[in-house]
Every structure is written in C-alpha cells, then in structure tokens.
Design brief:
The protein is built from 23 helices and 24 strands. It is of the alpha+beta class and 693 residues long. The chain has 4 domains: 125 residues, N Utilization Substance Protein A, Chain:P, domain 4, CATH 3.30.1480; 157 residues, K homology (KH) domain (GMP Synthetase, Chain A, domain 3); 76 residues, DNA polymerase, domain 1; 133 residues, no CATH class. A 5-stranded mixed β-barrel has the order 5-6-7-9-8. Strands 20-21-22-23-24 form a 5-stranded antiparallel sheet. A hairpin with a 2-residue loop joins strand 16 and strand 17. The chain is flat and about 120 Å long. 18% of the residues are buried.
C-alpha cells in the first residue's frame, strides 16, 4: 500500500506537469534550507538531504572534519565516532554524518512549506519556457481569455499568450471563450514565467496551415517556394512539385477546393492565390499576375536600378493585372522579387511607333518586324475609331513589333552598361595603380630615413608644449616616427587631432634644424663648413663694431661705417649720408675711413655745435651723395635730418615716401642713446609733450 507522502508527491507531479526528479530536487533543497535556518549552520558547510519515496522519511547529512578529539560538534567529529561509520577513515578526512533531528518532519513541514512552493513554481516556469520555446514557428490552439484595445489574451495549456494589435488580422473580431489558432512568434523568459507572443497576420501562419491541411506539403512532395500576404485581404503562394506527375496547384486546392476553403475559413475569408513556380523569371512573373493574362514580359537586370520587368497585357486586362489599389501587382512583385511595370498593349504599341519615328537607327535594326509597322499603325487607328477589342491575329502583330523595339533598346542599354562597367573597372584600376605608386613612394621615403632619427626623442626638439602633447597623444615617440608621417606628405601630420599648418611649420622647422642626412643626400656634393663661411663673409668689407663688440639689431650704439668705392646707380634708392656743413671736410675722398667710435660725451657736444649753427643748404645740395656699404643684418640707415640738423637712425625704405624718423638723444641718467618721441599730453590739450622712450 502506498504511503500518503508518495500519493501527494505523485499528485503534485501530475497537476503541475513536472517530472519526479524536478519535484524531488525541490523538496531536498527545501529541507537543506530549513535545516540551516533551525540549526544555524554556516552557509559554507556542505549539507545534503534525501527523501525515501516509499516511506516519506527525510534524512539530512552534514559534512564534518575528522579529528582526534572534537571540540566543535557542529563541524568536527572524533576519530572513534568516525570509524564507526567508515572504518578506514583517517584524521583530517571529511565524512558525511547523519544529523537528522528527531522532530525534523514537523519542522520541515512548517519551515520549508514556502520554499517548496517557490521551488515548484520556478520549476514549473522553466518547464513551460522549455516547452514553448521549442514551439516557436508552430501553430497552437488557444481560448480567448480577455479582449482589450491593445491586445487579446489567449489561454494556452495552463499559460497565457498575448496577441498584440499589430499581429491581428484587420477586420477580424474576437469573442470571449472563442477557440483560435495562432502562430507562436516569440517566447521570452521572464521572472513571472515565459512571455509568449502569438500572431495571426504573419505569412508563416499560412505556411503552417497549408502543411496541416495539405498532406503533400507535409510529406515534402510539394514544396512552398514563396509566400506573400496582406492579412485579411489577399495572399499569393508559389508552389512546386518535387515528384514527377504531381500537380502542385491541384494538391493545394483539393477536390472542389475543399482544402483551400478550410484555410480561407480559418483566416476569415482571406483570398488565396496558389501559383505554380517556374525557374524562368519571365514565366513566373506572368503567372504571378494571375488572374490577369500577360502578352509579353521583358526583363532588365540593372545593377544600379535593380531588376525590372516590363509586362504588356491586353487593354481589358490592365485593371485586373494592377488590382484594387495596386494590390495584385504589389503582391506579384513581392512574390517574384522583381519590380513590375505594367502597360496596356495600345500604350506599348504607340510608344514603340514613337520611338521608331524619333530614332532613325531603330528601323534598320528591326529586321522583318519593320515590315509590320504600317499594319500596326492601321490597327491602332481602327481601334481608336471603333473602340473594339483586338482579335488574336492583331495581338500577335502588335506583340511582335513591341518585342522587337523593346529588344533593340534593351540591347542598347545593356551595351551602355557594359561600357560604364568597363569605365568603372578602368577607373578603379587607375586608382589602385596610383595607390600602389603612392605606397611605393612612401616605402622609398621610409627607406631613406637615417637610423639616427629613431634615437632622437621628441624632448630633444625645441617644440612647444602644445605641439609636443599632440605628437605624444598620436603615439609618436621620436624623430623617425615624424619622418615616417612626413613621408606621406603634409597630410601625414595634418590628419592628427589638433594639428594645423602652424604646428606643421613648427615641426618642419625643428626637423630642418637637426640637419639629418639621408642615404641619398650622402652621395651629393655637400659644401663644407669652411666653404659656407667663406661664401657668407665674401660680400662684407668690414663688420661694424662698437667698442670692440659686434652690433646686433637691439643695440642702440652708433656703428662705425666703412665707405665703399663703387658708384650709386641713379635708379636704385641707395641709403646716403648727407653730412652737415661742419662735417664736409671730413668726408671728401671715398677711400677715407671713418674715425674711431664716438663717445657719448663727444656726440652730445657735436650735436649741440651743429644745432647752434645754421646749415648751408646750397652747399649741402651741391655736395654729391656718397653711397655707403650697408652691413648685413643691420636694418637701420644713418642720415642727417635737414630740419633738425640732428643725426638720426631710420629704417630703410623701398619706396620714395618719407619714413617716420626716430631722433636719438643722450640720456644722462642711463648713459645711453635713446629715442625721443612726442605724445599728446592730455585730451583737452592740443599741445604735444616730449618724452624719452
């Protein structure tokens, strides 16, 4: 006789639809959890539980460490007690000890009740998810549980499925407790169980219904090649027989349309067109436009514009081929994968005659069809006057002319595409050749980079911190890396983040300052340092000095000027020295050298004497100007101001306009020559005050 525990156990398994192993595992885990809570056992200690299905008696085993003398009974066991369980046990080994409490059945029933229920619910959710995830893409039966504006809830074998609004058939109404077939679209695992989404508008639902209703499709004798569907309105199915002697369309329709009618009733009266698939695209497109009859089909496979099929139908079949709101043509295009242009035979023939009249080269290429052009014109004229339909003979003539003209222009378009394809291939080849040449040039430039450039760090260059940071961020570590970038051109550095023309110029200036010699430059004649020095010193007669020191651009001392013997050209604006009357006797001969540098005290005395005397303008103008040799690197020229009779230094001018002059005076406080300027003392005053810069 079976125990009450075993009866309850079996009832839970049957009601929940779970296996015995899953329920038993849930019970054992609940017992372990209840024992840990009551005995306050550490979560790291190994504990197992077992249940005898015949008697329903639970047992709990705790892993303990074998020691000589146990000090912690919860985690340790003495060697003598352990050997009563296992005679070969040794000190330091672990052993599973039966630690089932005497009243564990009552304690487990109270403490593990919620745990057992939770484990069973989780196992039930996992079982449902595993079951329905395998049914994705299949048809399921359900009962309408609730209807809302957003979705319909179906009850399916103990769980719920959602039929969203966008997956419903337009115009279809659902009632409570209504039996429905639905296509399992998606199954997702959530904390509340599997979330099942079903559909009644998916095209694969029609495929599954055909497999259920047509045995030939289910066993593979008839194959479904393509399906396109507008749910609730119309669908097209292309089928093909995989066994000789089998009519695929007849097998799907059934005797007197019984098979297809049951599917139509299931889908709420949706029209279904079953079409025989053909390997020839032109034939397949003509069949896809059924129930309309097609006179001719011209295919144009353009790699840019796509695949286009030009279809010609009789005038009375044009509306049937297009369908209501273009539905028939749209479904045929989706079924075949071709873009379909539909023309009536009158429109196509008229366009063909117009193309022949506009292009004189078409007529010689038509061949025998050119002889039918007058007959075609007469047929079109009679049709327009009498408003009668074409007979079979007239349709044949019109079709021959239309096919000939469209074939000619199709060949022209094909030739143009071939030329365009050839031009494109040539362009790509030229681009590839240019890229290879560029890479070869870059590789040659890399080969010319000296090895010593890779040993020069960026910190050795006189770069600003901004440019140095940009180079470091680009993982450029040395001068060799910079030269590799420059081998690609200026864009090698300009493409770096934050790098511009100024940064590029700074880097190039620092690289040029290193004077690195590449492998090609070593073979060229490079002037030595002595030759460069001789060439640099050749045009200079004497270097201006002040008190034995060379004069730089910032110095305020007066330079000693050496006169040059060559004459000044009248066209050139040569800087001259117009000496005052008191200094005429000192500059008489071109070969005379200037006196020694003048001390500041002597210059002040000379300036005061010159200022006290009136200059002889006649003598000054009659005296010829003596050209002076201008030292290199000096941007000032020496002249005598005719108005103030003072010795001035001014910047050289390339034009004949009068330049702004700076007057030099001796500052007694600093003991140096300084420039005297004028400034306006106050906004209210119109007088100018002298100040010393």
């Amino acid at each position: 006789m079976k125990s009450d525990f075993l009866l309850a156990f079996n009832q839970i398994c049957s009601d929940r639809g779970l296996s015995r192993e899953i329920v038993l595992e849930a019970l054992e885990m609940a017992l372990v959890s209840a024992y840990r809570r009551n005995a306050d056992i550490s979560a790291t200690q190994n504990i197992t539980a077992s249940i005898d299905l015949e008697t329903g008696k639970p047992q709990v085993f705790v892993e303990k460490l074998v020691v000589e003398k146990a000090t912690d009974p919860d985690q340790e066991i003495s060697l003598n007690a352990a050997r009563r369980i296992s005679p070969n046990i040794q000190v330091g080994d672990a052993i599973m000890v039966d630690s089932t409490p005497k009243d564990f059945g009552r304690i487990a029933a109270q403490s593990a009740k919620q745990i057992i229920l939770q484990r069973i619910r989780e196992a039930e959710r996992d079982a449902q998810y595993t079951r329905y995830v395998q049914q994705e893409g299949e048809i399921v039966h359900g009962t309408v549980h609730s209807v809302t504006s957003q979705a319909v809830i179906l009850h399916i074998d103990g769980t719920e499925a959602t039929l969203p609004r966008n997956q419903q058939v337009p115009g279809e109404r659902y009632n409570l407790h209504q039996r429905l077939r639905a296509y399992v679209l998606e199954v997702r695992k959530t904390s509340r169980g599997p979330q099942i989404t079903v559909s009644r508008s998916h095209k694969n639902m029609l495929r599954r219904l055909l497999e259920l209703e047509v045995p030939e499709i289910f066993n593979g004798t008839v194959e479904i090649k393509a399906i396109t569907r507008e749910a609730g309105s119309r669908s097209k199915v292309a089928v093909a027989a995989r066994q000789a002697g089998v009519d695929p369309v007849g097998a799907c329709v059934g005797m007197r349309g019984v098979r297809i009618q049951s599917i139509v009733n299931e889908l709420g009266g949706e029209k279904i067109d079953v079409i025989e698939w053909d390997a020839d695209p032109a034939t397949f497109i003509a069949k896809a436009l059924s129930p309309a009859k097609v006179l001719g089909t011209r295919l144009d496979d353009d790699p840019i514009e796509g695949r286009t099929a030009s279809v010609v139908v009789p005038d009375d079949q044009l509306s049937l081929a297009i369908g209501r709101a273009g539905q028939n043509a749209r479904l045929a295009a989706k079924l075949t994968g071709w873009r379909i242009d539909i023309q009536s035979v009158t429109e196509a023939a008229t366009e063909s005659l117009r193309m022949v009249n506009e292009d004189p080269e078409v007529l010689p290429a038509l061949g025998t069809a050119a002889e039918l052009l007058p007959q075609v014109a007469g047929i079109l004229r009679r049709h327009e006057q009498d408003r009668l339909s074409y007979n079979a003979e007239e349709l044949l003539v019109l079709r021959q002319v239309i096919d000939a003209v469209q074939g000619y222009f199709a060949s022209i378009r094909s030739a143009e595409r071939e030329r365009a394809r050839a031009d494109e291939m040539a362009r790509r080849a030229a681009i590839a050749a240019a890229e290879n040449e560029r890479r070869a040039a870059i590789a040659a430039a890399h080969a010319q980079i000296p090895d010593e450039a890779y040993s020069i760090s960026l910190t050795d260059l006189d770069l600003s911190s901004r440019v140095l940071n940009h180079l470091t961020n680009a993982e450029i570590q040395n001068v060799g890396d910079i030269l590799e970038r420059l081998a690609e051109g200026d864009e090698g550095l300009l493409k770096l983040d934050g790098f511009g023309p100024r940064s590029l110029a700074e880097v190039q200036e620092c690289i040029d300052a290193l004077a690195l010699v590449t492998e090609t430059e070593e073979t060229e004649d490079v002037p030595t340092v002595q030759e460069v020095a001789v060439e640099a010193e050749a045009p200079i007669e004497a270097e201006p000095e002040v008190d034995g020191e060379s004069l730089d651009e910032t110095s305020t001392a007066i330079p000693t000027i050496t006169l040059v013997e060559e004459e000044a050209e009248p066209e050139a604006a040569t800087p001259v020295v117009e000496a005052p009357t008191t200094a005429e006797s000192e500059i008489t001969e071109p070969e005379q050298e200037l006196p020694a540098p003048i001390e500041p005290e002597e210059l002040t005395t000379a300036v005061e004497e010159v200022s006290a005397q009136e200059p002889d303008e006649t003598a000054a103008h009659d005296e010829p100007a003596v050209p002076l040799a201008e030292p290199e690197g000096l941007d000032l020229e020496l002249a005598v101001d005719e108005d103030d009779d003072l010795l001035n230094l001014r910047e050289p001018s390339s034009s004949k306009k009068r330049q702004r002059r700076r007057e030099l005076v001796f500052d007694e406080n600093t003991g140096q020559l300084v420039a005297r300027r004028q400034r306006k003392g106050s906004r209210r005053s119109h007088e100018w005050d002298d100040f010393i810069d």
